[in-house]
Amino acid sequence: MKVLRLAFILCFGVFFACKKDSKEESAPEADPFELVSIEVDSLSDTTLTYTDIGRQPSMKLIFSSALDISSAAGSVLFNESSGERVPYSITYENDNRSIVVKPVSALPSFSSFRLVVSQGLQNTTGQTLEENVVINLSTRLDSTDKFPRISDDELLTLVQKQTFKYFWDFAHPVSGLARERNTSGETVTSGGSGFGIMSIVVGVHRNFISRQEALTRMQRIVDFLKNKAQRFHGAFPHWMNGSTGAVQPFSAKDNGADLVETSLLFQGLLTARQFFDGGGAAESTLRNDINILWNDVEWDWFRRGNQDVLYWHWSPQYNWDINLPIRGWNEALITYVLAASSPNHAIPKSVYDKGWANNGQMVNGNRYYDVVLPLGPENGGPLFFSHYSFLGLNPNGLKDAYADYGVQNKAHTMINYRYSVANPKKFFGYSEECWGLTASDDINGYLAHDPRNDNGVVSPTAALSSFPYTPEESMRALKFFYYKLGDRLWKEYGFIDAFSLYEPWFANSFLAIDQGPIIVMIENHRSGLLWDLFMSCPEVKKGLKDLGFSSPHI
Questions:
Q1: What is the pLDDT of residues 157-167, one digit of tens each?
Q2: Residue 107 sits in the same domain as residue 198
Q3: Domain Glycoamylase-like: where (predicted)?
């Protein structure tokens, strides 16, 4: 820039000298006031983009002449990528030709910032910069621990307790049900509420709340479901208004029954029924009310005219227009198990074999990352397939004609883990400590992440809800998420929903369907509590046997 300007000045001077009066002398042109160089932690980058900087960077800006210090304060801006101001200090060097900008406190790791020097900056002769200067910066991982080290057992309890707050403190104040996400307002979710009910049981077990507090909350939930919530042939919608119980459409035609969400809700309700087994009137009434709801679900009606398959949705306005049969392998095994377990509306085994198992087409048997996968798509699919149905169903020793489900879930999880470690797409951050692909919020909305659909986003629920299957690998991930990334991931309701070290990007969201499996599956890993309760249901024992399952727990 300086060379071009100097060449122009020389040419212009020669031309003007030929035209001017011989008695006149041209006034010397002042040198421009400009930014000469930039150093961030003593490094210079002509693109004005600095990545992988420390959390307390020193940003030195050198100008062509001395600054008017009074103009600097309003002309130097240091902001986060969101636009929020970052407190900083300015010092002056080199006879006020240089300024050094430093943040007052350490910046969060894997964050983006902009340092802007505006045209309002002046030198001592009143000249201003010709254009704004924008410097882009992003911080690297700070490998120091963000929180004091505690025992592994204490850490697991801490994660459960913090995550529990989503379902206890943030529950809808009228219904007591779980909000879909932390920005949902009135919208509550059926499946996520089933997970939340199971979390309440954990809360009592871990002494986060008293049994009486839990009973009071459960009475509110069940009363709302029984007397306010809209139901369709006994089934609940995906979303409801938490105050009125009216359907909140999940999509254009999804304004009626959602059978899979209903099954996730009843997985929780039946677990609570088994937990509140006291002889007093209050617990007895709660159990009776849960049974009324349970007996009302017309599981067999969702065969849509006695077909050998269950259908996911039905709407009073659009009937079966969504036209989505529930076929495996995915998260919906629990739907068929509960449909077979119903006291009044059970399905026959043929619906399971021909519908869910699709006449055996859900069987895989191929090897991925040196692990044989019994069921499901290539590389196993998103990890919630191995979580949602197995919050209550104990997969250990659970077998039928198609798979050993303990083997299935461990294989699925190990493939997901080994894929992340191998990192074939070379996403920055993937490692033995940072892994886990499942459905979650995403940089561009929401995505079911898995090895076939990977864009560098890690979902903490994936590894943490897999503790029963990969305890060592999940503990490494937990320690990394908490100790090393805790300044970005650990918030008021536990771990945020998703993040990417590749971008970098960090969600500001929490989802019921992701927070719930964390607290529940960690408890199943520690004590087997939810597995023991759900598998103790006599209807479930019978339903599993009727479908051809064997298990040491039935």
A1: 999 999 999 99
A2: no
A3: 325-538
Please report the DSSP string for 332-380 in residue order.
THHHHHHHHH-SSSPPPHHHIIIIISGGGTTB---EETTEE--BSSGGG
CATH classification at residue 315: 1.50.10.140
52 and 103 belong to one structural domain: yes
Per the structure block, which two tokens stand in for 259? 């059978």
Count of the separate structural domains present in the chain: 2
Q: What is the pLDDT of residues 246-293, one digit of tens each?
A: 999 999 999 999 999 999 999 999 999 999 999 999 999 999 999 999
To which H or E segment does residue 116 belong? strand 112-117
Here the contacts of 484-489 (C-beta below 8 Å, separation 24 or greater) are 484/141, 484/142, 484/143, 484/145, 484/146, 484/433, 485/109, 485/110, 485/141, 485/146, 486/146, 486/147, 487/108, 487/109, 487/142, 487/146, 488/108, 488/109, 488/110, 488/111, 489/460
CA–CA separation, 88 and 425 (whole Å): 38
Counting every residue written for the chain, the total comes to 554
Average pLDDT on 521-525 reads: 99
Mean of pLDDT over the chain:
93
- Which of 296, 302, 521 has the alpha carbon at shortest distance from 392? 521
> Which pLDDT score, from 0 to 100, does residue 231 have?
98
The verdict on 244 and 327 lying in the same domain is yes
471 belongs to a structural domain = yes
What is the helix (H) or strand (E) element at residue 448, kind and residue range? Answer: strand 445-448
Q: Are residues 64 and 179 in the same domain?
A: no
